[in-house]
Structures are given as C-alpha cells and as structure tokens.
C-alpha cells in the first residue's frame, strides 16, 4: 500500500457525494492536499469543495488530469453518473493514453471492455490500467464496504494504490476474481444499504403504530441494526449468522414468534429475490452501456 512518504496524486472526475467521502477519508489519514485535484462542472459545487476541503477544483477534466505545473495524476477516479460516463471518458481518452494513470471507476454497470473501447478505440497498443470499484454510501460516514476488480494491465503497485484509496472509505474491502464479481458486490453491499433502510423503515412504522414516538422508534430500530451487524462482524469466521440468530431465539419465546411469522410471510425469500433482481439489473446495465 502506498505510504504517507510516497502518496499518489489523485484526480477525481466528478465532485459528488462519493468523491466527498473519499476526500474526507484521505485527508483524515494525512494525504497531502497538494496531491488532490477535482474536476466538477457546477460552479456552486466547485466553490463548496474549495471552501470545505481547500483543494484545487477544475471545470475541465483534462486540465484537472494534467495539473498544469503540478504533479501528473497517478490515479484518476471516475465518479460521474452512468448516463454521461461514455461522453466523459471519450473526452479524456487522449490524455489517459498519453499519461497512463491508474483509472478507478466507481460507475455501476460499466464494464472494463467498454472503458477500454472508449479510451483506446481500435488501437492495438497496451490498454490503460483500470480497476472497477464498487463502494457504498455508508462510506460517507467511514463505514463503507467495497469490492474491487483489476484488469490485466493493473500492476501490483497499482493494486496497492487502489487499496490506499479504498481503505479511507471502507471498513471491509475485498478483491474479486472476476469482473462479474463486481455485480455480486453491487447486489450485496453496493445497493445493500437500501435493503436495511427498508427493514428499519418497516420496524419504525410498526413501532409508531404500537405507540412509540417516531424518533424513539427510529433510533431504537437503527441502533438495533447497528448492534446486530457488530455482533456478526465480531463472531468467529466459522460461526454462521444462522447460529447467532438461534442463540437469541428461545423456543416458543417472543423472538421465536416474530421469526416464525416472518418466515411464514416469505421475508427471507423476498430479500434473496431482491438481491438477485439487483444483480440482474447490473448485467442488463452493462449490456446497455456496451452499445454506447
């Protein structure tokens, strides 16, 4: 992993929430502000990023990557919306080919082959090194989870650079062995926070109907979810989640009654089907972007 004595110069293309989460994490661990640049098209957002993080912010993607008299970009993080990513990447293709930084994409559903096509076209030259990174929104609070896949042009040193960036936003992060594994990660943790919001929302609403004040219900439900997650993470690796559930479920007790009703209502199957639907959508998105 890159050390504080030799940190990479990182350029963010797109200054939205995930960029901000990464900036916050990098600066908390001492990354030099002189080695961060952001490209962001909206004037108001540019000013916010400058005032909040004291970083160089550009309106032009190519200018941000080149840096003028500053250091050249070692890492370029693509943090734009999927709808514009093809246009954005084609616009910086020449400078990426010329300088060959590590490109880290956090854009869901876009395959490496499409990035390579947008950057290199039909060229037979070696491709630009690309990593697909699937973070999630709890990264905004330093509680993220992430999965990563590197193409064959990514060196061992660049893998360490990727981990250097990711460890600042994710408590749990893993390399996957195939690009399809990024879709698996998306279906579990990338979209996963919304699954738990749905569960907390349902518990909160029922608790209000039972008579608890809404804020009390919300905080009880959220803290319970957080505590249960910490119990799972603290358990030995050979202890599965089902055994944890069984330990807190006395036969014919109150928890047993709740779990049996949820099983009767096909709650586990519904959640599993939702995870599968998410993954299926990841695949269809990749097919759509492959036509751009």
UniProtKB/TrEMBL annotation:
Taxonomic superkingdom: Eukaryota
Record-level Gene Ontology MF annotations: pyrroline-5-carboxylate reductase activity
InterPro entries xrefs: 6-PGluconate_DH-like_C_sf, NAD(P)-bd_dom_sf, P5C_Rdtase_cat_N, P5CR_dimer, Pyrroline-COOH_reductase
Binding site for NADPH: 62
Record keywords, A-Z: NADP, Oxidoreductase
One GO biological process term: L-proline biosynthetic process
Domain Pyrroline-5-carboxylate reductase catalytic N-terminal: from-to ranges: 10-109
Keyword presence, Membrane: no
Keyword match NADP: yes
Alphabetized SUPFAM superfamilies for the sequence: 6-phosphogluconate dehydrogenase C-terminal domain-like, NAD(P)-binding Rossmann-fold domains
Entry-linked Pfam families: F420_oxidored, P5CR_dimer
Residue positions binding NADP(+): 13-18, 79-82
Residue ranges annotated for the Pyrroline-5-carboxylate reductase dimerisation domain, each copy included: 179-283
Family, as annotated: Belongs to the pyrroline-5-carboxylate reductase family.
Protein name: Pyrroline-5-carboxylate reductase
Organism whose genome encodes this protein: Coemansia pectinata
